[in-house]
Design brief:
About 50% of the residues lie in helices and about 0% in strands. About 50% of the residues are buried. It has a domain of about 170 residues: ADP-ribosylation/Crystallin J1 (ADP-ribosylglycohydrolase fold, Orthogonal Bundle), CATH 1.10.4080. The protein binds magnesium ion (MG). The site of magnesium ion has 6 residues, from α2 and α10.
Length: about 270
């Protein structure tokens, strides 16, 4: 198996599962220090959510098609997750975003400016491991999230992941992320204080928060815990940051190994990787 792909997807799944018990909670009202269960979603310890399900559904399609991007096949996997409990560690789909639900139910993604939740960013990471164009990244976003902002966020994230895979440091990458609004803070994101970093469901907030926690920490544990402890969309911020943290640090240290011990559905994840 591709070790870096495994590190990335398991890093994402750990961040997701750490955040699930605290989703929607306000910053400062809780402290995540490791895997725990129940609370917000009533799920046992180590349960991952839609972020991981849709990531591995995407990875499985890439695996089945020799790395080729076939959006209809990825769509079919998403449907199998939503309707048939595939790609699910739980048997029940307990967490799905409205924009994703609508797109999967109708086959038509929303393209309006209010549909820029982080629902495509959270599942796009496997594309960093295949040879594909920005256009293809955007098409995969647009299976559910068709607005320019969501599509662009996915492309930026995949580019960052590829550069980390090539051995660049996050501190070197951040100043080069020069884009117009609403991505204009990315190139200086490491200069902001925690109070300036939002962590709700808006895709730009999630991308900013993930890059910020990566810049502010120097190991896997602190990166994913800081991401979750930002509050609000804890599982997705944890997943988006955790995927990149997995690439940088691997998931082999004591904290990550302890998390992996209780992470549910590892055989479901492994089936989707190559
Ligand atoms: Mg989720």
């Amino acid at each position: 198996m591709n070790k870096k792909l495994r590190d990335a997807v398991y890093g994402l799944a750990i961040g997701d599962a750490l955040g699930v018990p605290y989703e929607f909670k306000k910053r400062g009202t809780f402290e995540c220090t490791g895997m725990t269960g129940y609370k917000v979603h009533g799920q046992p310890e180590g349960t991952w959510s839609d972020d991981t399900s849709m990531t591995i559904a995407t990875a499985k399609s890439l695996k089945d098609n020799g790395g080729k991007i076939l959006t209809h096949d990825i769509f079919d996997n998403f449907l199998a997750w939503k309707d048939e409990e595939d790609f699910n560690c739980n048997g029940v789909c307990f967490d799905i975003g409205n924009t994703t639900w609508d797109a999967l139910a109708t086959g038509i993604p929303r393209t309006d400016v209010d549909s820029n939740g982080n629902g495509s960013l959270m599942r796009i990471l496997p594309l960093a491991f295949v040879d594909c164009t920005d256009e293809e990244i955007e098409e995969v976003s647009a299976i559910t999230h068709g607005h320019e902002i969501s599509k662009k966020a996915c492309a930026i994230y995949v580019h960052v992941a590829r550069r980390l895979l090539a051995g660049e440091k996050i501190q070197e990458i951040i100043p080069t992320l020069r884009y117009g609004k609403p991505f204009d803070r990315l190139c200086v994101i490491d200069r902001f204080e925690e109070r300036d970093i939002k962590s709700g469901g808006y895709v730009v907030e999630t991308l900013e928060a993930a890059l910020w926690v990566l810049a502010k920490n120097d190991n896997f544990k602190d990166t994913v815990l800081t991401a979750v402890n930002l509050g609000k969309d804890t599982d997705t911020t944890g997943a988006v940051a955790g995927g990149l943290a997995g690439i940088i640090y691997g998931v082999d240290d004591a904290f990550a190994r302890k998390c992996l011990e209780v992470l549910r559905g590892k055989e479901i994840i492994d089936r989707c990787l190559w």
